[in-house]
Amino acid sequence: xxxxxxLQQDKxxxxxxxxxxxxxxxxxxxRISLFQYPLxxxxxxxxxxxxxxxxxxxxxxxxxxxxxxxxxxxxxxGESFYVALWLKMxxxxxxxxxxxxxxxxxxKIEWNLPDGFVPGVVQWPYPKRFEKSGLVSFxxxxxxxxxxxxxxxxxxxxxxNAKLSASVDWLVCKERCTSGHVDLVIKMPVKxxxxxxNRRWASHFxxxxxKLSRISSEWEVNAFINKDQILIHIDxxxxxxxxxxxxxxxxxxxxxxxxxxxxxxxxxxxxxxxxVQRSKLSTRLPARLKGVLLSPEGWGNSREKxxxxxxxxxxxxx
Length: 318
Fold this sequence. Notes:
The protein is mostly beta strands. It is about 15% helix and about 40% strand.
C-alpha cells in the first residue's frame, strides 16, 4: 500500500482527529447519513407537537409568565377534563385571589372554546395574606394553578384537534403594581378512549387540589351579626379530639369585614366562635356569608384538608 493510501486510510480513522491539532470534528449534520434525516425530522415534529399539545409555551408579561396546561393528553368526546392557568411571578411579586381585599384586582380568565365546549368556574386555591401600609390584600406569590373544568361535547369527532383559547388579565404588585394581559392557546387531540395523564404536571394539579376549599358535612358552621362584629360559630364533630387554633376567615364577598382587623378564636360550650370585625363601610350586609375558613393544622385528622368552604345564612343575634 502506498504512502498516499496509508495517509488517506489514516484520515478516515478515529485516530486522525487526535493527530491533527488544527482539525475540528465535522458538524453533526455532516456525519449523519442521508436516510437518517427523515427519522430525525419525524422525531423532532412529534416532540414539538406533544409539548405544544398539552402545555403551550409560556407567554412572558412584565413580572409574570403564563401558560395553559391540560391535566390529560387528549380529549374524550362527551367527557370533562381539567385545564389550568399557570402563573409564575417574579420574586416578591404577587397576583390576587377572587376577593383581592383592600386593594388589587382578581385574575380574570375569558375562555374562547370550540362549539359545544362548556367551561366551569375557576377553582381558586386558598390565598395568602399580604399587608403593606395598613392595607391587607389576598393573593398568591411564587406560582399558582387556577384550574377550570371543561366539558367536551359528545358530537366532537375522534381524530381531530381542539383549539382551546383564553384571554387572561391580572394585576401584579410589589412596591408598585402593573397590569398584565396575554392570549393563550392550547391544542389537544380528540381520541375516543380514556385519556392518559400529563405526568409532567400531575404533581402541580395534585398539590393545587389540596389547597382548594371543601364543603364538609362533619363541621357545622353558622354566622351571626353582633353590632360591629361577625361571629362565626363552628360546631366540632364528636370524633374530633384535637384543638382548633390560628383560624383565618377569607370572605369571598368584598366590603363585609375589616381586612386589617383582628380575628379572635374563642372556645364555646359546643365548639368555637371566630370573632371577625365588620367593615365600617358595611352599612348593609348580604343575606349569606361566603368564604374560606383556613386551619393551618387541618380540619380533622388530615393536615391536607386545610380550607373549609362556607356558604351560610348571616343572621342577627337579636
